[in-house]
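Batch job 17 of 40 flagged for manual review because the log was empty.
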Amino acid sequence: PFTFVPSQEIVEYAQLKAQISEDECMEMLVKQISFYFSRQNLVKDTFMLSKMTTNMQLPTDVVFNFHKIQAITNDFDLFITALKKSGLFVTEDRVLVSPKVE
């Protein structure tokens, strides 16, 4: 029979994830989200731009499924809280996210 043996990388990742507090997780999420929505990133991120509406709104599930976000958490509620803490506007139904217009 075939036995799955996780790579050392997967084992280390699982151990790291188990050691991260919710506050640390939130801090990491806010930092990553802030980068994604920064002007420096948006001017060159053709994928994000291609998924945005004309109102600069992006489906939350697109951002939630980014590999770096998934490496931090798979908790959608925590992710939505991080979006809001990052100073972004999240629609009431939590489907779209956009930079706040001043």
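Reviewer: the log was empty due to a logging misconfiguration, but the result itself is present. The first strand starts at residue 58 and ends at 59. Unflagging and moving on to job 18.
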